[in-house]
Amino acid sequence: MATNDGVVVQTSPLRKVGRYALLAFILLWCLFPFMWLIDTSLKLGDAALNSPSLSQGPFGLDNYRSVFDQGFGYNLRNSAIVAGTTTIVCITIGSLAAYALARLPLKGKVLILSAILAVALFPSVALVPPLYELWLNLGLLNTYPGLYIPYTAFTLPLTIFILTTFYASIPKDLEEQARVDGATAFQAFYKIVLPLAAPGVFAAAIIVFVYAWNEFLLSSTFAPRDLAAQTVPVAIAAFTGSVEFQRPIGTVTAACVIVTIPMIIGTLILQRRITAGLTAGAVKG
Amino acid sequence: MSATTVAERAPTVGGKKSLSDSALARFFLSPSVLVMALVAAFPIFYAIILSLYVYQGRLREGFGGLENYTEALSSSRFWDAVQATFIFTVSSVSAEFLIGLGFALIMRQVFIGRGITRASILVPWVIPTVIAAQLWYFMFSVTPGFVNYALGLDRFNWLGQPGWAMFSIVFADVWKTAPFVALLLLAGLQTIPDEMYESARVDGATTWQRFWYITMPLLKPAILVALLFRTIDALRVFDLPQVMTGGSFNTESLSILVQRYVVQTPNPGLGSALSTLTFIIVLIIGVLFVRALGRDFVLNVEDE
Amino acid sequence: MRARQRWLFATILAATALVAAGCSGTSPDDEGGGDGGGELSWAIGGSEAAPGGVHREVAEMWNEENPDNPISIERLPDDAGEQRQQQSLELNAQESGFDVLGMDVIWTGEYAVNGWLESLEDVRGEIEEVTIPGAFLSATWEGELWAAPYNSNAGFLYYRTDLVDEAPTTWDEVVQVGMEVAEQENIAPFVGQGAQYEGMVVNFLEYYWGAGGEMFNEDASEVLWDNEIALEAVEFMAEANESGFYASGFNTFLEEESRNEFQSGKAVFMRNWPYVYGLASDKAESEIAGDFDIAPLPTFTGEGTISALGGFNNAVSAFSDNPEAAKEFVVWASTNEEVQMLLGESSLPPTMSSVYENLQDDPVMKLLGEVLPDAKPRPPAPTWNDISVTIQQEIFPAYNGEKDPQEAVEAVGAFLEESIQ
Asked: Which CATH number is associated with domain A64-281?
């Protein structure tokens, strides 16, 4: 019987070893710099700057303490709200647009897709001055909408693209069948297409969330200092050392670790959802 | 059946679609278009209009037409930036694609600790770019010299030489985004039904043949999407070269050049012209990709 | 039905999220904006603007004596470029959010020409009589006073006392001694700031001025750039890079990197700002604590010393709602002895010359007192930014062997001529 998405049941020992070696390499690749981050964040004072060796102390939790002393809790809250709202809004309106493009009749789809894509191409640094003035006049500086609205706008193209690809790849017969049975376009979409496209939806959701979480240029312009809306990357960039010119590598890496661990946990959970979504609606004939 | 359906028209069975579906399509598209028009389209037009005026620093001097453009196109700094950007894009996207594909193929298989591996693979991508840039800067910099230490090199100046500076930046970018590519490709891989592999095995196909004749064709849309977005992002790279080398030693990308004229030594006219030129370059490449993608879409969507 | 319930749930979730996210969150400094009545806002960045930093102490001092016009710090990022960016955004939009601006000494001309500052000509006398000449000059543009000097900075030569007996007074000596000792000890002769940024321009100017060069005349109406002297300076740098006098990686170093190298004992000489002294004397952190000392920067002629002047000046925003009080503040911060002493005790070089007499016990302040009278400001021209960038674009590749030094030097001269048109 076929496993979930496994390929072979029997493997030669050599292949197994090979596969696990590759895996070890992958893990090393991804995690080693992160280990370095953790190691550096635990080093006190200038130890991290002075020597490349991982085991050179002294070690302690001072950096983490001083990170939160700088009001980092507020930044975490802000980033979570902004990124979360961006994801919800973007996936919602993006799904609708993608469904329209994938299934419903419309003239000039390629043109529309191109236009949507084009929007995301302009160097954002040049968009900042006019947007800043607009935001200033609309009173959107240092507010959440002032961030999640542009974030949504800039992640919509990729979202729509991914979702369109996924919706388009699902066989039409399933929907046709549902329509014959009396379902509306909406219901067909929600009950049939969406569950099957779940992997794509989750992929898009993760991408949007990470983009919004890590975005720096716009948030440093629209919410540079006010803890009411300042996000994590901007806050980290604003960390200062204890003396002029000093680069606060300890607090920067500590903040980074604080920020990354929940993301990892979140991804671990979401990973299961992706595979669960697949078993729920089998694409098998 | 639920009694709360909103649309009251009778469903069709294929063939001609009713008018409501077309209107529905426009309705579904409108929120997206609205948001994008406000936030993205408006500043773009503003910037393009700005590019038609000539400035001395921040002070507007007058209408210049295409003067800013001719100035930009005739400056060697612009073409150096184009070259640097292209070298970066080609190297990093190809490396990311190959490595990402490898990761995706491995992640797809069943093994112990699969969930952890998948989560780990996302770690590089999840770290904010500015932090990752700083991280790799510390790694490659002569002081404290982590890479040199690990490789046993004595004070090799990675970031201070043409060629190697670009290598360091590409390396950092590949490290960071190969996982993203892997994610996209993995999602695509998961939609390929196992039966196809099974029946191919039964028919005697080798691993390579299964890969080349089943996986690759079915993965094509996902590959194109991944390549498309990675290319577009790579063409606009800013954070990595800015933090790691400041644009020195032939690593000044187009976005960095734009930033120089928008923020560092502001000249709204020239800065906007450079942005527009960058936009056009990226757009052309994007359109080429969408053409390749569009056919797939069209085929997929209108197969009757 | 299940479907309906799920729909409902999703909608509620989305709606709640949107509503909750509609406004912005609360923040600890929600004391109600800085625009009401007599409140002043001081836009300054860096480590000293953080809680516990000396700028905060200064603000508190002011607030005690001036309860009607309390000042609060609007903290900007650490990086000077970022500070300028944020101030520019606000001032360009003619917003009144900032009353007092903490400006890097090189921005005076730019801000003045953009119409962002209130002139301080009427309080010129008060300030001029107590301030170090170089610092005062950096706050003027076209003969007019636009800012009140606040704190200063100058470059030092750091050297290893366990390896070198006496601090050299000429660059050639530094090279000679440095190369010799470095070879013996297997470390680098010299570290400084050589990456392609403002710091490199500072290092270059210290060579150029040290060889007798000038950039502009007194009121910046004439260009005094000397191609020959400039070439001398550039060739010195190129030779230094080539021969290994400059440590490997010099062309990627900013302040911190050079400090790191020196502090880990990997260099004989270093050019850096005073801030390193305290850090490098810390026995717990530094490999060389107690084994180094500071000296004035050498010149090419061996006579006197030249260093680049750094630091910050306070200015009044032209769009402030409260310019009178703001003006009082900047004058006070510049001329009040207590304030300037406070800066000195916190290792921020004061701009008030008399204060240095009281700080003779501190080796850093003592040396600063010696060096500051000869410290030259970079021309605070409005085009300084462009000039600096041009120097970076030309001199950096020139000393790295990627560009012909003669061409580079001529290009800079040509640009300077253009810039005063």
From this structure: 1.10.3720.10
B265: nearest CB among C197, C264, C386 = C386
The 3-state DSSP class for residue A263 equals helix
**Whole-prediction pTM value?**
0.85
> Which structure tokens are listed for C100?
């007092």
User: pLDDT at position C11, please?
Assistant: 64
Domain ranges of chain A: 13-60, 64-281
| Domain of C209, in residue numbers | 156-308+380-419
Q: Enter the tokens of residue B178.
A: 């190969």
The 8-class DSSP code of residue A61 comes to: S
Nearest chain A residue to B116 by CA distance is: A268
What residues in A contact B236, CB-CB < 8 Å? 121, 123
Query: What CATH number does the domain containing B257 carry?
Result: 1.10.3720.10
Q: Which of A176, A186, C69 is nearest to B20 (CA)?
A: A186
Helix axis angle, B42-50 to B268-301, nearest 10°: 140
Place of tokens 């002011």: C62
The residue segments making up the domain with residue B235 are 75-299
- What six digits make up the tokens of A193? 């297409």
pLDDT value of position C17: 59
Shared-domain flag, residues C271 and C372: no
Domain count, chain B: 1
Residues C63-113 pLDDT 10s: 999 999 999 999 888 888 889 988 998 898 898 889 999 999 999 999 999
- From CA C238, how far away is CA C229, in angstroms rounded? 14
Of A176 and B5, the one with more pLDDT: A176
Report if residue B141 sits inside a domain.
yes
Torsion angle of the four alpha carbons B92, B96, B97, B103, in this order, in degrees rounded to the nearest 10: 170
Of A77, A226, A237, the CB nearest to C77: A237
Tens-digit pLDDT profile for residues C374-396: 888 888 788 888 899 999 999 99
Same domain, C403 and C385: yes
Find the mean pLDDT for residues A128-149: 89
- Give yes or no for B156 touching C (CB within 8 A): yes
CA distance readout (Å), A282 to A5, A45, A204, C229, C329? 12, 56, 21, 79, 73
| C240 shares a domain with C294 | yes
Using DSSP's 3-state secondary structure scheme, residue A144 falls into coil
C396 located within any domain: yes
For chain C, the domain total comes to 2
Among C92, B165, C185, which residue's Cα sits nearest to residue A132?
A: C92
Contacts of C92 in chain B (CB under 8 A): 58
Asked if the structure places residue B144 within a domain, the reply is yes
d(CA B118, CA B228): 23
What is the pLDDT confidence band of residue C22, given thresholds at 50, 70 and 90? low
Note whether residue B202 is domain-resident. yes
The residues in A 127-186 lying below 8 A from C, measured between CB atoms, are: 132-133, 136, 142-145, 148
Q: Are C206 and C291 in a shared domain?
A: yes
Note whether residue B146 is domain-resident: yes
Do residue A125 and residue B259 have CB atoms under 8 angstroms apart? Answer: yes
Q: Are residues C222 and C117 in the same domain?
A: no
List helix spans (H) across A123-248. 124-138, 145-169, 172-180, 185-188, 194-196, 198-214, 217-222, 232-237
Mean pLDDT estimate for chain B: 82
Q: Enter the DSSP assignment of C378.
A: P
The minimum CA-CA distance between C350 and chain A, rounded to whole Å, is 15
**Dist. CA B141–CA B156, nearest whole Å:** 9
Same domain, C297 and C344: no
Q: Residue C261: which of B143, B264, B265 has the nearest Cβ? A: B143
Q: What is the CATH number of the domain that holds C313?
A: 3.40.190.10
User: Are the C-beta atoms of C87 and C70 separated by less than 8 Å?
Assistant: no
Strand (E) or helix (H) holding B234 = helix B216-235
* pLDDT tens string C105-150: 999 999 999 999 999 999 999 999 999 988 998 999 888 999 999 9
